[in-house]
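[Backbone geometry]
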Amino acid sequence: MLMQSIGTVPFVDLSIQWDQIGSEVMPDLEKLFQANAFCLGPWAAAFEKQVGEYLGVKHAIAVSSGSAALHVATIAAGIKRGDKVLVPAHTFIGTIWGLIYEGAIPVFCDVEESTGNIDLADAGRRIEEGVKAIIPVHLYGQPVDVAKVVDFAQRHDLTVIEDCAQAIGARYQGKALGTFGSMGCFSFYPGKNLGGAGEGGLVITNDDDKAQVLRSLREHGQGPQRYVHERIGYNYRMDGIQALVLGHKLRRLDAWTDQRRALAARYAEALADTPLRLPTVVHGDHVFHLYVVRTADRDALKAHLEAHGIQTGLHYPMPLYKQPCLADIASPCPGGYPVTEDWAGSGLSLPMFAGMTKQQQDRVIAAIRVYFEQVKP
């Protein structure tokens, strides 16, 4: 049996990234402090240019978080109080905060069994008067079937806002995610594939008019003239420090993504003969922000791994329509959400991070095999 005394396998270890960029960041950080460039500023502008070129998009607007990105995108899309928006029932609640803030109504849809992404067949059954948009979430780094989403949206006259919070670097038919819809929204929360030293987010678009609105919204609704506020706005500016760190990390993102894919391939090979339901690459290029396995024994397996010094995560054990804060919004739905319920009740996120060692992964694999071969009743 494995013993905790040999140390913990962390769910994520961001110190590895810092070891690679720290010597580069510190001199630039001193320059930033000397320049007083704390809110947006030249480092944010440089990062916007850099990430816009990486994603192949005309406009990249840096904001304070992924939730802020989705909020301003909601407004820029013209979604108003009472409008309805199709969203997957299985996602982080940040996907819908912008809708709630604006008084719009999320219409929850079930998800695909294979990916956990929005099920367009189920979404089609939930089309009703007042539905104005759809927010597909590229969950865990797996692209949705974007061509089908775009076709679905065109047939029903819907705006597409892509939630790419977990999927930077992923591509579909050779194009970066976030470039297919009206806007794409990204999160740079520290644990993301591209994470800052705190909060950060991004909205991308090829629409000049929307870009102008987005830039105004993030800075108190201000227009070209300072202290002249053309609309109700927000303090959603990206910190210069976050932009500086993200710029250094972006240069390494593809290499780190390759490491994640190699880890995922190794998990898949080593666990193929276990009862676990493993992630599959279905649409486009998966970047494995999370490696989520599924089993009816989820809670027992989680406890077993933690007893052996292996950290795991749950993403996400409570569907959105069951969240207490949404009790007045989420109404009972005929047919329910059986696939969402399965993902919520069976999903377990295994350690997955750039820099994870073979020895660490071997411990995870060995502990899982011990559970199914020796421990499980």
About this structure: Residues 252-375 form a domain with the Aspartate Aminotransferase, domain 1 fold (CATH 3.90.1150.10).
